[in-house]
Amino acid sequence: MPTLRGIPGPYRLFFVSFDSHEPTHVHVQRERKTCKYWMEPLALVSNHGFSPVELNTIRQLLRDHRSQILEAWDEHCGYRR
Questions:
Q1: φ/ψ (deg, to 5) at 25
Q2: What whole-number distance in Å separates Cα of residue 67 and Cα of residue 71?
Q3: Which of 10, 19, 38, 58 is the most buried (most CB within 10 A)?
Q4: How many CA atoms lie within 13 A of 59 on its CB side?
Q5: Predicted structure pTM score
Q6: Does residue 25 fall inside a structural domain?
Q7: How does pLDDT run across 44-53, given as a tens digit for each residue?
Q8: Is residue 45 part of a domain?
């Protein structure tokens, strides 16, 4: 599970290799909480433990670092859907 580097904050952003057949997305983790966002368009797919306020913080983080996340997806998966 490759972790994206260089994105500040308490969150671990990562991809899961076996789900690269899905639309472009990123997993986010902090402690035992996880969520998953589609990147195009930006939309919450699943949430396990994050509050609505924290999900908004994560959404803004993903918006702010969108190009870096998409570039990392392309490098990891070899393409973007």
A1: -155, 170
A2: 6
A3: 58
A4: 15
A5: 0.90
A6: yes
A7: 999 999 999 9
A8: yes
